[in-house]
Write a structure and sequence with these properties.
The protein is built from nine helices and 14 strands. By secondary structure, the chain is of the alpha/beta class. The strands form four sheets. It has an eight-stranded mixed sheet, sandwiched between helices. Helix 3 crosses helix 4 and helix 6 runs parallel beside helix 8. It catalyses: N-acetyl-L-glutamate + ATP = N-acetyl-L-glutamyl 5-phosphate + ADP.
């Protein structure tokens, strides 16, 4: 074997060795991945995420996927001539819009399940209504009624635990039901946070269209690789975080305070971002950990 070829194979071996402590640390642990953004609409990125999930499953993780579908819902709402309105960034969801949302999310759900089965995974698609996994109450935005938008009040982990124990990957669309069994659309970030908390997940991951959390959004070099929940709260108070990142970081902190070990914000536009974050020393996104938690990255 030529020296150049041997070097190439040694580099591959070193990648596996670098991943070893992370594989050992999280073997058998539950991970919740909130799947959204460009990774849901770009076919190549979709395949990348599914392959990452397959590898995570094979090396011992117990993955749960929670997905959104806002862009697809908007496309279908516009297509059939319904009005799209937002209040404080939340979609106003009347009865007709709720019917469209449920149809679209279930369609997206089954598509993801099919992709997983093509790579040899055992996956089951469900909504939060199945097995009353997600029980909700009506959510208001600054006192305004925004229709069939739900706030999670209770998560029933029984069905999810049964599926995981039988070696299935639950793929969940964020539809829940209230005490009268009416359907409600739930923000996918909120649903993922509630599920991760109820399942006592070791990791909660948000796949987004940003590289991570910046100390200064105007400075590309200020990406934060790792911070504690306390440091995240200080960042929120600093005024340097705005827009959609505010509720996302708050969700991360809430999950940490509720018992989730680590929360990751990753750029889903990068192929294999899950593997790069979990199984390399540096990672590529932002990891938020509990104030007393051991630092994530392993020094060699």
């Amino acid at each position: 074997m030529e020296k150049a070829e041997m070097t190439k194979w040694l580099e591959k071996a070193n990648v596996l060795i670098e991943a070893l402590p992370y594989i050992q640390r999280f073997h058998g642990k539950t991970i919740v991945v909130k799947y959204g953004g460009s990774a849901m609409v770009d076919h190549a990125l979709k395949k990348s995420v599914i392959r990452d999930v397959a590898l995570l499953k094979l090396v011992g993780f117990r993955p749960i996927i929670v997905h959104g579908g806002g862009k697809e819902i908007t496309r279908w709402v516009d297509r059939i001539g319904l009005e799209t309105r937002f209040v404080n960034g939340l979609r106003v969801t009347d009865k007709e819009t709720m019917e469209v949302a449920e149809m679209v999310l279930n369609r997206v759900n089954k598509g993801l399940v099919s992709m997983m089965e093509k790579v040899g995974l055992k996956a089951v698609g469900l909504s939060g209504k199945d097995g009353t996994v997600l029980r909700v109450q009506r959510k208001f935005s600054d006192g305004q009624d925004i229709g069939y938008v739900g706030e999670v009040t209770e998560v029933n982990p029984q069905l999810l635990n049964s599926l995981l124990d039988q070696d299935f990957i639950p793929v969940i669309c964020p539809i829940g039901s209230d005490d009268e069994y009416h359907s409600y659309n739930i923000n996918a970030d909120d649903a993922a946070c509630a599920i991760a908390t109820a399942m006592k997940a070791s990791k909660l991951v948000f796949l987004t269209d940003i590289e991570g959390v910046y100390r200064d959004p105007a400075d590309p070099g200020s990406l934060i690789s790792e911070m504690t929940a306390g440091e995240a709260l200080e960042l929120l108070k600093s005024g340097n975080v705005g827009g959609g990142m505010l509720p996302k970081i708050q969700n991360c902190v809430d999950a940490i305070q509720a018992g989730v070990s680590r929360v990751h914000i990753l750029d889903g536009r990068i192929e294999h971002s899950l593997l790069l974050e979990f199984y390399t020393n540096r990672g590529i996104g932002t990891a938020i950990i509990g104030d007393e938690e051991e630092r994530y990255h392993v020094e060699q």
